[in-house]
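Pinned message: reference record for DUF3301 domain-containing protein
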Amino acid sequence: MNLADLLLMMVILALAWQFWRVRAMSEKAYGYLQDYCNKQGLQLISLSRRKTRIRPFHGKLDWYCEFDFEFSGNGEDTYQGSLIMRGMQVTDTQLPPYRV
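Predicted structure (tokens):
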């Protein structure tokens, strides 16, 4: 094994670790939204990641993810909200006015 092989293996491991980190962020966002919707009396329908970037947060580089989600207030209509995560922290949740 030479230096190029070792470097290639380290790059592959770093990419795999980052993939799992973003995946964990998506799972945390889904769990957060389930709890949020249950507390508000809403039905969570779907969640999708819209944007993923690396940005500084609390003095270090970390993932910045924007999510779109669909929910219903009365079981008939659907509305689209947004959620922003920086690292593993939810920093903003926005919902449009909805019918109960």
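Pinned by admin. Summary line: The chain has a mean pLDDT of 93.
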